[in-house]
Amino acid sequence: MTKHIYNKRLDINTRKIENEKRDEIHKSNSELENGKNTNNRREENIIMKYLDDKKSSKEYYKLLITTESLSKI
Known about the structure:
Structural class: alpha+beta
Low-confidence stretches: 39-43, 45-64
Order of helices and strands: HEEH
Largest sheet: 2 strands, antiparallel
Radius of gyration: 17 Å
Strand order of the largest sheet: 1-2
Strand content: 15-25%
Mean pLDDT: 58
Shape: rod-shaped
Oligomer: single chain
C-alpha cells in the first residue's frame, strides 16, 4: 500500500515538472514570435515533440536551431 502511494506521488511530481517545462517552452516560443526575445548573435527556435505511448511513458524532444548554424550552411 505504501509503495503504491509513493509511486503515485512520483507520478504527480513528474507530471508537474513536465508541465512546467512545456509552459516554459511555449512562453519562449511566443516571445520569439513577438520579437521580444531576439538576440543579435543567436536566436533559438524550440521545437517540441511530445510522444505518449500505451505505457504512458512521456518523452520530450527539443531541437534548437540557431541562426548561426543556419547561416553556415
